[in-house]
Every structure is written in structure tokens, then in C-alpha cells.
Amino acid sequence: MDEAWYDDEAGPIVRPYTITRGRTPGKHSRLDTAAQVVTVEPRPETPRLELTPEHRMILDACMRPVSLAELAVILTQPLGVVRVLCSDLLDHGAVFVRSPRTEVSREILEQVYRGLCRL
């Protein structure tokens, strides 16, 4: 009976609330899934933030712009967990987040429409 009941297919054993220390998304909870996260270089010292392995994975992955949705896949964690972790890093100035444009100009829509009509 020394055989483990889990294997690689079972996924991570650590529960999401353990990774976030029971916290839920705070003031940055409305981060869009398409928001691009980029690590600030050089990495600032974050003495008040105890970096977890997941925080470090985010910093390493975001050397180029990466969306929150992509980070959730990279970390194999739920989007809510990634929002909490990115919120920590954002609060400490370790990452920069660029939200997608919410407005589309009429001119761009007309160009797209004309392009589609030409097809």
C-alpha cells in the first residue's frame, strides 16, 4: 500500500486557495483575461512580498507580454488564482499590466467592413 493514489494525470495536489493563501482578487479583480502582463525590468526588490514559486513563474513567463488567460494555462491554475497572484505583483511594481482597448473607432470598423465585402 505504499503506492501513491495520484499520478501525473491527476494534476496538482495543492488546492488553489492554498496558493492564494485564501485571498480572493482585490482591487485588481477586474483585470481582463486579455490584459497583457509584462515583467518590469530590472526586477524591483519586493521585500514585503514573499515570492512564491507561482509568482516567480509569472515573472519569468512575462519577460514578453502574456495575457492573463495564457498565464492561467502556463501555471495550470484557475484564472482567479492568476488574478490574485498578478495583483500581488502589480501592487509591488514587479509587473506592468496593459488592458485591451475597449473602444473601436468607426473608421476601423468601416475598413474591416469594406475588406470583408471585397472577399
Automatic annotation (TrEMBL):
Pfam family, one: DUF742
Protein name, entry field: DUF742 domain-containing protein
